Amino acid sequence: MLANDFETFAECFEIPHFIATSDNKASIDTIEQFRDLFDRTIEDLRLKRITDLIRICDVSEYRSPTQIGSTHTTHMMCGAQRVADPFPSFSTFELIDGDWKITSSQYAVDKTLGIGAALNAQRANTPDKQTKVRNEK
Predict the structure, then answer these.
(1) Are the C-beta atoms of residues 115 and 19 closer than 8 Å to each other?
(2) In the beta sheet, which residues pair with residue 68?
(3) Is the previous residue joined to 88 through a cis bond, with omega within 30 degrees of 0?
């Protein structure tokens, strides 16, 4: 992400993708919407001079043979200095066509930080709907 490599980053996600923060939620239905969200997030991180995103997995567990729920804590750093309080996130991974993809993401951030700022800026352009449910077995 911090290398601004959208193509590599996007390969890890399934579209449509459900995303939520403390202030907003949206279904990202197209790769263009996902690119816009990525670019807005990168811009916010650049303005805050973020040099590292340190993500530590707190817990991950299989919910089924094709779905994993995972919680991690993110530390936003500028060199050795923490820029914001660490925040938890929850992601759902699903095995789709032989690849593990992130199908939904929830971040405990408000509209002033990283993905929260990007989602808030994009809010007028994205609908509030949950993506389709897959792998219910």
Answers:
(1) yes
(2) 62, 93
(3) no
| Phi and psi torsions of 134, nearest 5° | -120, 160
Alpha carbon distance 37, 31 (integer Å) = 10
Contact 135, 67 (CB under 8 A): yes
What letter would DSSP give residue 126? S
Provide the 8-state DSSP code for 89: E
Alpha-helical regions (H) of 5-124: 6-10, 31-47, 115-122
Model confidence at 94: pLDDT above 90 = yes
Residue matched to tokens 């939904």: 104
Query: The whole model's pTM is what?
Result: 0.80
d(CA 133, CA 103) in angstroms, rounded, equals 10
For residue range 115-136, what is the model confidence (pLDDT) as tens digits?
777 777 765 444 444 555 555 5
Mean per-residue pLDDT of the chain: 87
Instruction: Count Cβ atoms below 10 Å from residue 119 Cβ, excluding itself.
Output: 24
**At residue 90, what is the residue type?**
F
Contacts with 83 (C-beta within 8 Å, 6 or more apart), sequence order: 48, 49, 50, 76, 77
> Rounded distance, CA 91 to CA 96, Å?
15
